[in-house]
């Protein structure tokens, strides 16, 4: 049960300082984080695109405390979109945003997050791409879905994320599938109480399959966020049974994980999108990647021991 412990550590300033200072951290972080700046990430987007892969870009950073920081987050995405426009990469790269980074948890946070994300969605549309709203802990979801619904009034391609481990998600999936939304399904990577979330991994996998079926049978565009070979195979079969063409759904995986499988799926004609994070405030994102897979933690520990 290492996952909950690591997730708790992701909120600890003491652990943040320890992990940041560890000799092996930089090596491991580089596996999951594509760099610290736009200049770092743009060549990676170009390389992935040249290999037939699509990209969703996440400027990492969640724990903001001021309105000024929320505006800086907005501006970071606008800078990214400007660079993608210069290079003609708009149709190959979309954006993923966390509304907490745009001020959702601050005073009047719902209105602030909407005001910050709207120009990002508009700028993305101008270069031929779109934005997906990432799901965070369960207390933020009603606000996220309301912002998603509002943005879709003018930009219907705006996507959102749902998490299989939450009890509410099957109902959310039915609603989103019926209204034709772009929806990424993931298992879930936040520490949630048993009152709102499934705690047993096999039961989470079963819920994931049920939700995939709802999305594949619906009117929207499913985005299957998983590295699990079994769930990927089930997703392919559900798409086939639903009569979906290869461009009517996609798979998504994290940058640095199962790269060979990413290329295999793309070579078979599937749309394969790589979730690519960059930025200096990487700690929370990095810790959730460790929590998701024990092998990632072992890799990190070995790196500390060999570099120490």
From TrEMBL:
<dbReference type="InterPro" id="IPR029041">
    <property type="entry name" value="FAD-linked_oxidoreductase-like"/>
</dbReference>
<keyword id="KW-0274">FAD</keyword>
<comment type="pathway">
    <text>Amino-acid degradation; L-proline degradation into L-glutamate; L-glutamate from L-proline: step 1/2.</text>
</comment>
<dbReference type="InterPro" id="IPR002872">
    <property type="entry name" value="Proline_DH_dom"/>
</dbReference>
<keyword id="KW-0285">Flavoprotein</keyword>
<dbReference type="InterPro" id="IPR008219">
    <property type="entry name" value="PRODH_bac_arc"/>
</dbReference>
<keyword id="KW-0547">Nucleotide-binding</keyword>
<keyword id="KW-0642">Proline metabolism</keyword>
<dbReference type="InterPro" id="IPR015659">
    <property type="entry name" value="Proline_oxidase"/>
</dbReference>
<dbReference type="Pfam" id="PF01619">
    <property type="entry name" value="Pro_dh"/>
</dbReference>
<feature type="domain" description="Proline dehydrogenase">
    <location>
        <begin position="45"/>
        <end position="298"/>
    </location>
</feature>
<protein>
    <recommendedName>
        <fullName>proline dehydrogenase</fullName>
        <ecNumber>1.5.5.2</ecNumber>
    </recommendedName>
</protein>
<keyword id="KW-0560">Oxidoreductase</keyword>
């Amino acid at each position: 049960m290492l996952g909950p412990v690591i997730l708790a550590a992701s909120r600890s300033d003491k652990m943040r300082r320890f992990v940041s200072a560890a000799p092996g951290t930089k090596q491991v972080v580089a596996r999951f984080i594509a760099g610290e700046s736009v200049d770092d990430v743009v060549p990676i987007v170009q390389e992935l695109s040249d290999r037939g892969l699509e990209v969703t870009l996440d400027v990492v950073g969640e724990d903001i405390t001021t309105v000024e920081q929320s505006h800086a987050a907005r501006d970071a995405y606008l800078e990214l979109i400007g660079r993608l426009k210069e290079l003609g990469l708009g149709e190959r790269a979309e954006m993923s945003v966390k509304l907490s980074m745009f001020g959702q948890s601050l005073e009047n946070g719902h209105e602030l997050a909407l005001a910050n994300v709207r120009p990002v969605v508009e700028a993305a549309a101008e270069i031929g791409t779109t934005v997906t709203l990432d799901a965070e802990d369960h207390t933020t979801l009603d606000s996220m879905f309301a912002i998603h619904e509002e943005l879709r009034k003018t930009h219907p391609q705006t996507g959102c994320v749902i998490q299989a481990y939450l009890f509410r998600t099957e109902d959310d999936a039915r609603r989103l599938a019926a209204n034709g939304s772009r929806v990424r399904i993931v298992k879930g990577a936040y520490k949630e109480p048993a009152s709102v979330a499934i705690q047993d991994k096999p039961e989470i996998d079963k819920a994931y399959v049920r939700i995939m079926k709802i999305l594949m049978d619906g009117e929207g565009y499913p985005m299957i966020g998983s590295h699990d070979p079994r769930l990927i195979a089930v997703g392919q079969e559900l798409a086939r049974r639903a009569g979906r063409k290869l461009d009517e759904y996609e798979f998504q995986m994290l940058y640095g994980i199962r790269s060979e499988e990413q290329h295999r799926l793309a070579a078979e004609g599937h749309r394969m999108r790589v979730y690519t994070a960059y930025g200096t405030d990487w700690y929370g994102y990095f810790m959730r990647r460790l929590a998701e897979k024990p092998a990632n933690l072992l890799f990190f520990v070995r790196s500390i021991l060999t570099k120490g």
